[in-house]
Amino acid sequence: METPNVLINKLTLEEKAQLLCGVAPMHTFAVERLGIPSINFSDGPHGVRKMAESGDSLSGISNSLPTTCFPPAATSACSFNPDNLYKMGKALGEECKYYDINLLLGPAINIQKNPLCGRNFEYFSEDPKLAGDLGIELVKGVQSQGVGTSLKHFACNSNEDFRMDGESVVDERALREIYLRSFERVVSYAKPTTLMCAYNKLNGAFCSENKWLLTDVLRDDWGFDGLVMSDWGAVKDRDKGVEAGLDLEMPGSIYHNVQIIIDAVKDNTLSIDKVDKAVLNLLKLIERTRIDKIKDCDFDDHDELSMNIALDSAVLLKNQDDILPLDKTRKYLVIGDFFKTMRYQGSGSSLINAHKLTSPEDAFNARGIKYDFARGYKVSEINQNINCEDDAIKKAKDADIILYFGGQSDYVESEGFDRSNMKLSDNQLLLIQKLIQLKKKIVFVMFGGSPVELPFENDMSAILNMLLPGQAGGEACARLLFGESNPCGKLAQTWPINYSDVINNESYASGPIQLYKESIFVGYRYYNTFNVPVRYSFGYGLSYSNFWYSNLIVKTDNQKITLSFEVENRSNMSGKEVCQVYVSGPKSNVYKPLQELRAYKKVYIEGKEKINVSLDVSLNDLRYYDIEQHKWLLESGLYIFKVGKSSENIKLKQILNIFSDDKPSESLNDYSSYFSTKANIESITDEQFKVMVNYKEEEIVKSKDKYTFETPLKDLNSFFGKRIYGLATRLGQKEYKNACKLEDGPQKEAKKKSAIFLLRIIPDNSLRSLCYSAGGKLKYEVAQALLALANGHIFKAIKWLCAKPKK
Ligand code: BGC
């Protein structure tokens, strides 16, 4: 291929417009006459979903070739170990090369704003530093193989309900310090080849046509020089998108949108320079992601890596009287379907067809552990199953120690919809209550991608949270339970006691417009600042060893502060500890959280050994974003540097006076009273917040028709509208029925999950998003005919149907 600068002068306008529109399901457009190849994409983020050619982003996600299913982000984040992500990225890059994939769609680094977000499992953390660091290493790992990445979903994509028409309204400090911060870090330190814009609107404009986001911040402030692609079906007005900085539409195959670009250039409403810039970004991407396909890939090695990451990430939440590790020679009663049908990944576009699977059952059997088993509940149901339950209770009466395998299933937690509450499903809650009445020792081995309420916590002897451990999770689980390995994961998301403890819990995903009224007080920043008790704090996790901290020395130079201290393992068992540094900024009129994670390090310490740990905090990381001056500023004053085992278990601290020439803007004070107490933050009204953000609701362009191309399908209430919605829903139902006919096994489960995902996302889709994400399967003309029908215009519908479909 010739260089981008040469090619740009040889391409016709039509070819340029076509290049900016992808080819479904996962390719870019090729211009053969100029030797411009098509490149291939694949999901991401924690495995390579090598998709069948016939699939599209709405169906067929379960049709993929076998690859390694690594632990999803919510799990690997708990390792607090960026090195894991580099290794995972490198392995993913190799698998991409094996399957001839030029670019992996990941990492996903959105902030886990609320525990109910259905997609939390795909995101790292509630903390932007941790999410950013891990994202950096994943990108570096994948790109070390010459394979591209796509940092997603840019930005503020924190709820799944109202997925296609939702809007996030966020103040600039929260944007800069929390929601954009993780993206900024990855863009600056890892230079991802691409970035994927989110479905939602942000402060008035769809992310896919948000110039402030895609150009002013991303390119002008951060210097991003890669390509911006849309999420699948996230494009609204294609010409506005190009104007705002959206280079590539995915999955594409919508000639209508190619034509829009051509017409806009001809009408002078879109400059050819903008089109050329976008095309150049695509051509450079093709150059940057040239790969040499490899013939062999060491899937066994990747399985081992996946297991090690699961081991490094699992979090021991409780261990009363050191009941764990278990004695291998004793006999146990194992209860719970997850023992055999382990939940190891989440559902939706990231669903991997695992190359190999090791369940806890496999791992127990491989060790010759003696156990009796009772199902207790069925993973494929949420209601009580009396037969399974009775069998479990009967067996439990004679048991000494019960190993209960449970947690959240894909029926309550998945991409495409948010959880409706933070509880375990009824079938498990009722069973656990009955087991507790037997007064036996219960070890809860838990699976799931986000926090659940644990009203029975006091009655458990131990809780081992495996999260979603990836394909080798069963092996990791057995190693931890039987003490072959020592737990060392720490929570990357706070576990509230009840959902009602979460800030703005009632308004979360209650309508399409989401006001992020808690501003920067997200996760532990909220709980710590306003003394809200939690079940398990951010950074919390136990070990079979005991670690003691001592002798903190804080030194400073111009750019950084260095903290040195000692950590001693006072047990006989070697183990790993995550040393965490939280910093409290000076008391001033600039509102701020009590403390923020500024550094951390995972260290390995032999039994009875004492080591020196040294950690750097960059002065830049102590800045806050001043929205008046549009700058990161460092306040002068007393900073408290704290070293701890978690955000709530601080072991050492020291105060340091820092001087700076920066002058905070006075205007910030206007809002500091909103965030001064828990009562104040809870009573910010919608109107007050909208004024603070300077948010104006988009004016609805009056149309003589009731329904527009944007109306969610669930709102099409006319005679034909209801039928159109019914038709779309039947697509999902048909997939579900077909899946149910399959033989029991992983294939059936995968198909069922993808059908549920489909069923749940259809209501929030509009005819526009359905058409633009279907990769040509729903022709633009047909979608317009359906819209005309929904509005009762039968002749118009016939006219659209008779219209010659554009290419
Ligand atoms: C998801 C993306 C994914 C894309 C392609 C979308 O629905 O939001 O994360 O990469 O589909 O499968």
Would you summarize the structure shown here?
The protein is an alpha/beta fold. The protein has 25 helices and 26 strands. Strand 18 and strand 19 form a beta hairpin.
Describe this structure in words.
The protein has 807 residues and is α/β, with parallel strands linked by helices. The strands form seven sheets. It has a six-stranded mixed beta sheet with strand order 9-14-13-12-10-11, with helices on both faces. Strand 12, helix 15 (426-437) and strand 13 form a beta-alpha-beta unit. Helix 21 (719-741) packs antiparallel against helix 22 and helix 24 runs antiparallel to helix 25 (794-802). The longest helix has 23 residues, at 719-741. It starts with a helix and ends in a 5-residue tail after the last helix. Residues 43-44, 57, 105, 152, 231-232, 349 line the site of beta-D-glucopyranose.
**Helical proportion, percent range:** 25-40%
Q: Could you say which overall geometry the principal axes of the C-alpha atoms support?
A: globular
Heteromolecules bound: beta-D-glucopyranose
Number of strands: 26
